[in-house]
Specification:
Structural class: alpha+beta
Number of strands: 10
Mean pLDDT: 85
Radius of gyration: 15 Å
Number of helices: 2
Length: 137
Amino acid sequence: MKYKLTNETQTYQDSTLYRIESLVDIPSIGVRKGDLGGWVESESNLSQDGDGWIFSPGIVCRGGTIRGGTIESQPLTISRSDGYFFTLQEKNGQPAVAAGCRYFTFPEAREHWQRTRGGTPLGDETMRILDILEKGI
């Protein structure tokens, strides 16, 4: 086993989520034994095999599944520090992000948040979240 569910929980859209903790080093992505990761609804959301990981504050729940280092099914959702959620989706056959009432391709999302939040801590955090979502983990 590469991770376990901790007793730390949070609620997201009426689902109970559990924080994950690494039981082994995953050097390819810089995870060390004992590191806390993101949040899952159950062990079915993240494979115990391969190098896949959910970094905090990432959330994978409902039908979302990560196997290896790839998203096998969506949604993958990440919460910003102010509670605003970003979800990996698809728009016209391209990877996209849904956030609040916004639904953008990644270039559109980057342009929007650079224009509206550029140079702020929330803007910097948003760009990091977009980087994670665009890579798929």
